Prior knowledge:
- The structure holds 2 protein chains of 2 kinds.
- In chain A, helix 4 packs across helix 6.
- The mean pLDDT of chain A is about 95.
- Chain A has one domain: Ribonuclease Z/Hydroxyacylglutathione hydrolase-like (Metallo-beta-lactamase, Chain A, 4-Layer Sandwich), CATH 3.60.15.
- By secondary structure, chain A is of the alpha/beta class.
- Chain A has 7 helices and 14 strands.
- Chain B has one domain: Ribonuclease Z/Hydroxyacylglutathione hydrolase-like (Metallo-beta-lactamase, Chain A).
- Chain B has 6 helices and 14 strands.
- In chain B, strand 8 and strand 9 form a beta hairpin.
- In chain B, helix 3 packs across helix 5.
- The mean pLDDT of chain B is about 95.
Amino acid sequence: MRVKFWGVRGSIPVPGRSTNRYGGNTSCVEVRPRGAVPIIIDAGTGIRRLGKSLVEEGVRGASILISHTHWDHVQGLPFFSPLYRDGNEFHIFARQRDTHLEAVFSQQHHAPYFPVPLTAIHADMRFHELIEGAQFDIGNAKVTSARLNHPWIAIAYRIDVDRASVVYCADTAPFTDLLLGREFVQNADLQTLPPPILEELAEMRRGVVALCKDADLLIYDTQFTAAEYKSRPHWGHSRPDDAIEIAREANVKQLCLFHHAPMRSDDENDQILADYRQVVAQANDKFSLISAYEGLEIPLGDE
Amino acid sequence: MKITFWGVRGSIPAPGPETNRYGGNTSCVSIETAGGALVIIDMGTGLMHLGNALLRGAFGKGGGKAAVLLSHTHWDHIQGLGFFAPVFIAGNQFTVWGPGGTDGVLEGILEGQMDPNFSPLQTLKNFAAKFEVKAAPQGEPFEVEGLTVVAREHAHGASTALSFRITEGDKTFVFASDVGYVDGLDPAAVAHYAGADALLHDTTYRPDDQATRRNRGFSSYEEAADAAIAAGVKRLVTFHYDQDYSDDDVDQIVVALRAYLDAHGGAAIEIVPAREGDSLAL
């Protein structure tokens, strides 16, 4: 398979000279099993260019796995041009929630927010609701999932195909300080958590480590620096340190920093990567460390 | 008044080296009045960068006050709101004037943007600043931070948007974006723009691209030119460039617009191509 990054940014797209190298589009990763249509993870603004590329290539369908429906992970969907073509077929997978998934997308597409209603989509669009921990097959690919620690909850996906594996782990906070769910957490005050909450977090962390076990590539939300995390632990994002701990425990082969903070310049991202490469070198970690940028393509297993 | 462009792109932010010169952020323009007040037009992704710049002044300390004129609530005109740092600082005060007809309808739409399915903010009530939402009166002047504003509703595809005629002393600036003329140039629109010192008008498309997308409700640079000529404005500000146009494409639009104006009786109209970070003093 091949993994290609079309959007690597968190929260909001950031055009401008300071993001030219890493890219300013929000989350979208393409996983292309050998000889099969793409499995797309998240539909941030990066999916717009992926759509153009698929039209040029003549690809008529894909599966789209949604980690969660925050805007930076779904904003590109109305601009994904293959949706407007008759005969194309798309399968959209996302977590089951109170609002029916299709209703969520209908709301996104609805006036007053967007001029084109969902009914204008010509492709066959099928919505699949997932329960946390769901396992299912897409062609030859085996997909597994786990819950993440994020406001309103997000899910991580692992794809095993072509004798290789990739895990997409965004968005998530570390599993130590706060349990994020449906309650709005107003401030950053960290206090000692009661044992049942700590156990729930530990359980969630075990699920993530198990999901990542021996993966060839782990893509992880590392939006925050240590200082930023300290002031905003309730925003639901991790530091490279958290990703490294999970990568180490799960024995992954390659860790990829992802979901870069919007105001992070290319030079700052370079520096973060250089700093943490020293950290993993000093710790004698077995995995290699990279940082996601738009256009990065990684071959895994059988191609 | 001093007009500054923070986001000039249409429909969806367009990051990448090919949009560096004009900018890839969506609709946001600020006006610093002669009296020193701040009025913001639209809340696209450019608003985040305006907000970060404002933190250096009174807004960083909770002593800022501004009004926002909102043309319509399509996502590319409101996406910056949740990332506008001054709304998270107690003491700052904002009043949004926009479409919807009633305060409650407009507030409901902005509230829906923060719905927990879409945003971790969950509700506008989580803003620390005072944040008031008001339906803009239409067709009659109202006062905003010392400016006199007249809002006019125009067709925008299947929906509508507001254009704003903004006057301070003897200077007039008109903001008219996402304009989809239905049966050619609308005389009422021309009257709304008449004699402006600067008319900002969307020049979303080249005529050939517009021909296949007329139902989307945007103007070509030729329609913007026709409006500017008919209204006898001094300057035409190009704006809301299609997300697929590179800087070179926009350069070509500006050249073609100059030729079109010159050939149709608009030789005296100055073109101001809106670029992120540029300002225009009237």
